[in-house]
Amino acid sequence: MSAGEILWQSVVPLFSALPVTLTVLGLLLVVGLALGTVLAFAQTYGRRPIRALCVSYEQLFRGIPPIVVLLFFWNGLFQSIGMPRVLVAALALGMRSAAYQSQIFRGAIQAVPAGQMMAARSLGMSRFQAIRSVILPQAFRLALPPWSNEYSSVVKDTAFICVIGGLIDLTRQAMMKVAPLSMRPGIGTQLVLPYLIILGLFYLVLTFSGTALLSLLERQLQIPGFEMKGKVER
Amino acid sequence: MAAAREKNLGNVILRVEGLHKRYGKDEVLKGVSFELRRGETKVVIGPSGTGKSTLLRCINQLSVPDQGRVWLEDIEITHARTNINHMRAQIGFVFQDFNLFSHLTALRNVSLGLVKVKRMRKEEALARARQELARVGLVAKADAYPAELSGGQKQRVSIARALAMDPKLILFDEPTSALDPELIGEVLEVMTHLAESGMTMIVVSHEMGFARAVADRIIFMEGGGILEEGTPAEMFTCPRCERTGQFLRKISELYGETENG
After folding, report:
1. What CA–CA distance (Å, rounded) separates A150 from A106?
2. How far is B85 from chain A (nearest CA, A)?
3. Which CATH class is domain A3-221?
4. Percentage of chain B with pLDDT > 70?
5. Do A124 and B85 touch (CB under 8 A)?
């Protein structure tokens, strides 16, 4: 067998592991987005005890390594109540991402000038209407660039789900193939590094295509007055 | 000039009684009471920091007064059981710094309240919004976003936004204070037309030319209270209160007397 064939044989299983990574990524983004939005609004408009609760949530999930959160959820939810592994992984990382996303949204909501809410209320809109049709559309645009940052960060976090036993994602699959490769005398050991580079490329494609789509969306939604004022004087 | 004063003013539309408002230790309003008649233009003048803007905000409850009551016709706005959104929909508010919705075009700025608050159909609301933009001379800018408008244009759009709601009165909070001098005229012109067409309005302003020419009555406020109220003739020629005269002389020294409208 040529080196190329050996390498290809190890790469093919990565494609079958890709759906697991993609599913977890998709679900965790949904969980993070939904929960993060709720947390952000609760923190901005909620009463004091609610705000305090949200702050503790954020501190908790931002202060613990993702692997530890995953292990905790795995032992708590899979081992004891039998929740499917993919869900456990998505929930753990999603709840963690929500802590970060809520900060992004909170910053964006607070960046919308107070006069916008006042003008909406002066027309007779309820607070909810004002949030929905005036604050949210503006905050959403402001949140897109930092959100795209969070996206590329959680893509890489998905590699940690390999700690969940029996869940074969990209990284777990690669680890399972590296072992036999490195035990093959001669050519095999030399293939380990190229193989890991290919694994890296899988993640690179995910982060790159995602952020490219997001910046496309950003341009689509662009409105005069909402440009990122990022022009640097050199 | 005389035209404004010959207006037949109707019955009382807004009644303000004993408004008090305090921010921390600072008592900004110390018992303000007055009445406004249908079709009346009342201009509120006075040194800065005397609670003029706070007074306007307390009328439509953007700031909630600590004490005192406000009636719009026979409904008490300040009553706990009054639906405040319903009351605000009937009271236009024009802000010093415009506060146009920055993610919407001029047209959508004007139509948003019609759709969301008055539950108007979208096409109908847009048609109405176009009419209101025409009224302030800005149909050509219907599709422009706020960032693409000059200060004067922004303020005219915000007046159109208030007008579209068919308000019973409009409160103007220093509508020209954030404008470059050469843009003040176009906004005052729109407001003068409004006053002449019988709109009921309260205008907090430092534009003495406008006050003299357009106001039916002028209120002079200082230190959180009303010091004097009268017609422009009374206030400008021989104010009963020495302090009012002092203020008016100082203002006309500072800005010069611009005859407007």
Report:
1. 14
2. 4
3. mainly alpha
4. 95
5. yes
